[in-house]
Write a structure and sequence with these properties.
Shape: elongated
Structural class: mainly beta
Helix content: under 10%
Number of domains: 1
Number of helices: 1
Bound molecules: zinc ion
Radius of gyration: 14 Å
Distance between the termini: 30 Å
């Protein structure tokens, strides 16, 4: 996730110090969530957010 460029203006993206959270309902109906990293463009303010482990919800539902 280093040297991310903004998809709108190609500016430099900086990482938020505070991790985010993406919450959803798993296939088995249990509420769960994954930790996310957030990035903001220093030029235009565009924000992107990425789950650290996007497969987490899917994998946990296969038990
Ligand atoms: Zn930008």
């Amino acid at each position: 996730m280093k040297d991310l460029k903004c998809i709108r203006c190609n500016g430099d993206m900086i990482k938020s110090y505070i991790d985010g959270k993406f919450s959803a309902v798993r296939k088995d109906g249990v509420y769960d969530g994954v930790t996310t990293n957030r990035f903001m463009c220093k030029e235009c303010g565009h924000i992107e957010e990425y789950a650290i482990n996007p497969k987490y919800l899917e994998n946990n539902s296969k038990k």
